[in-house]
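Reviewer 2 asked us to include a model.

Predict the structure of this chain.
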Amino acid sequence: MKKLDLNALQRPTLDLTLRDVNHTEVHMTLPSTKLIERLLAIAPELSTVAKGADAQSIKALYSLAADLISNNTDGLTFTAEELRDVYGVRFEDLFFIFPAYLEFVNEVQSAKN
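Predicted model (structure tokens):
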């Protein structure tokens, strides 16, 4: 008889090192459907937001980043304010984090097929 133990499966992760003094490393996992929908909705607008970002757009981007980064195997949670003020994530860092995360998701999905 075959056995599948879900506890033994290795979850794919995207490893992110933050800019804080401790260089906190976070092992980000695949997003929920709701999170991926939020990310995909904002992805086409990233370049526009970068050129003329208003305070509300910046807050929304940090909030999405916090939710994505909080989805990790380490059990760590982050707020938008913590990412910016405690962990040193700069506004321009978001434009590297989001595409890298989308690429990670796409690679995992491609590997499954």
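The first strand starts at residue 14 and ends at 17. Residues 94-112 form the longest helix (19 residues). We have added this to the supplementary material.
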